[in-house]
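Structure ticket #2291
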Amino acid sequence: MIADPVCSSMQPATIAQALAAANRLIDPVDARLLLEYVLHVYHVYLLTHPEHQLTEQQAANFSQLIQERAKGLPVAYLTGERPFYDLTFHVTNAVLIPRPETELLVEWALQLIPADRPERILDLGTGSGAIAITLAKHRPRSYVVAVDLSPDAITVARQNAKTLNVTNLEFVTGNWFDELSREKFDLIVSNPPYVAEHDPHLQQGDLRFEPEIALSAGNDGLACIDHIIAAAPGYLAANGWLLLEHGYDQAEACRRLLQQADFNNICSKPDLAGIMRVSGGQLNFSVLSLCSVPGATMKDA
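Resolution: structure written out below.
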């Protein structure tokens, strides 16, 4: 039985029928993901068992999820999970939903982290912990510190680390570098807020339901990026790297800010869509002796 989202009557439904009904209201990919979640099966099962009959409870659950998705709620928040890189993370509306383009940041970071020796890594604005936990999982000899301003986000990240059995990391509740004293890191990574405050995209799609504090940053979207780049030299070891995800049109501005902060080997890398999505640079160690730890906060930035 399935509750047709258009009416309240219950009707018999197979997998094929349930998907056909759902596809009239939401994107077919979203419908498939929600049905996989309800039935606890993989995509191949839906393809090979179209005649499988849903139970009344499964039908009711699927119908409810379809109705919520039709209102715009993100699939990841409805299912409470999101695949990222080669792991699956628990997500709530307290954190940004991990996205495929952020995997580029992880890939570049892994190229810079030797597998055979311990490195210290800092993830700023960790959210669900997707970046920090993935790096810690793939580089077990290294140690990762993950920072987020939101206590609720830190709770989600800690839960993910426990579920995924990752122990070579710690979580810090704080505003960017404020709680880190004068620690030094070999690599700093961040997917900070980078959408302009009044960007119309904030009122579209999944972004409407995600935490604004994790999305928008100043009139041009560069406030947090600017702050991180300016402060990072005080927390990087000699030859340390800083990698940042940014908006589709912010690569040039990021490279300019990195240059102004005396970074070397500055470059940007494209995501699978060909958009310059991540920029980074290596600390010019001639400025190490001149570095101080800026006391600016996100508000100041």
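Closing remark: The radius of gyration is 22 Å.
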